[in-house]
Amino acid sequence: MKPTRKIEYKFSGKVTVQDIANLMDHSNLQPQLTIQDTIDCCTMAKKYKCISCCVRPSDIEIAKKELDGTDIIITTVIGFPHGTCTTETKVFETKDAIKKGADEVDMVLNIGRLRSGDYEYVEKDIRSVVEAAHVEGVKVKVILENAYLTDEEKIKACEICEKAGADFTKTSTGYAPGGSTIHDLKLMRAHTKPEMQVKAAGGVRTLDATLAVMSTGAIRVGTRSTESILKEAIEREKEGGIYIPKEV
User: Full-prediction pTM beyond 0.85?
Assistant: First the structure.
């Protein structure tokens, strides 16, 4: 596993370009992307010292080669993007991904089972992946896909994730009708214990949107817009500084 980068996350006040990069799970998940696109993704993550590259399972070994010798985390996705494959399949995917070099996994919970009120199934599904990952020292983020859920369902999902031992809750896959919202991030942060983290994904494309995410206490951002966000951050830092808004 990669050595853990020591980061002090800030939720208010002035931040640096590197503080922004320390949030970035630069995502490379679209089905049409090529091997070269994955290599370029890793090159960009190295250039800006992002915390992570999030790649498709079949691209893990490419990312491992490209990121060798860095502390950039290799993240991949499990049960993506619908979350409807069997628990056994998710566990196999997780073990296989770790064997190939994944340092963290982002799994999609079974959305339909959650909406059906089959909470025992959802918890077992998550716990099985968590146990397979944690035995190898790998963290698990659980994608709720909030666009399909009511606030009550989102809260219940957070409670289940916490009970199942997940390390993060995550807003979205980026493939649903909607993505991350400030309302959802605040809701998720309010309904999980402090040591459990929150990741925003889906629709975070600008520096101001990223700063708003930071103000909620979320510590990761999954986005394809990493380079444009960081370029904007570099320019704003030159112009006088980057600040997290007090309220959004």
Answer: yes
